[in-house]
């Protein structure tokens, strides 16, 4: 087979033999763990790709309406992402830890209570998000956006707002069909009924509801809820503090990183909108797989800790990092080849960071991840990028250099933390979260060791 017809995996075997040597050093059970990770990460990667496709197709259709419509919809989607979706997904990330650990412990009915608690908290979180969204036009006018563009953005946001609760549900496996539905509705409303931007917003909102509805129907059809759902319980109104202690740092982790790229996009757009658009799409698509491995690693690590399998949790963490790193190198060698060499380095480091963040969530260490990301992006990455962009006049390259510095330090910090973390204590903490009884001695030792471990890692920075 010619090089041009090779699959990514075949290309990686010729370009990155180092991974064959690494596999030889891995402990027993690595192959089985890699299989389990692949079973989880595959559907997750496709689901994230489909979710990204909904907004992408809406933007493409609006691009045929005119420049002002395209600008208005692009800004509206950014506003929705920053003030709505990122906050909802961030708060829902507590479920990554609590549900994976609780399910692993075997305390299945508690999973249903956690879901109920999460739904109530996320619905309440929609109200402050809506308060910001209904004032989108005023906010855009304050930052001197074109009045017509601001008005178009407000129209899109208002129509989309009812769909906000629908996008905080878990990732769905019905994304492909929903994207087909989204394209069909966009075409009918924009070009048959001539509804313009309003039609695209309606199509996007309907697609989000369809995602949530399809997932709910699938769960009911397969009976996946039977072992974990005991009906609505008053327990969901209790112990919100334990959820918030994971949800708020988890939200900070996600929003701090997400918002930094939105800020970077705004700054880079000042210099070159065309080049920014190309790099932005490439980054979104190339980062989907490492994020998928990160979520899969979160589930595997959480399940193992909840089940009291400390060594299995450590193996899952190692294989998550290896899988994300290997896939990123496959992309670099197979897609980028000899071009965009600088960007390829960023992809590799950022891929490892995404996988590390997933393992951190699985272990319930969101506070550590939040501290690392906030300091990395807002004390180092963005300031450095801005200086290199405008003072050193390196343009967009300066921004990516700043982001590379941030991603490198973040990756080093998180991997070092995972290497030094007391996994036995993490196992005890997981059992406590899962409602499984542990001895008072173990519980006390865990709290003390956890505080010491966190302080030690902060000192490392």
Automatic annotation (TrEMBL):
It is found in: Membrane. This is Multidrug and toxin extrusion protein. Pfam families: MatE. Its main location: membrane. One of its GO terms (molecular function) is xenobiotic transmembrane transporter activity. It is a multi-pass membrane protein. The gene is slc47a3. InterPro entries: MATE_euk, MATE_fam. The keyword Transmembrane applies. One of its GO terms (biological process) is xenobiotic detoxification by transmembrane export across the plasma membrane. GO terms for cellular component: membrane. Keywords: Membrane, Transmembrane, Transmembrane helix. The keyword Transcription does not apply.
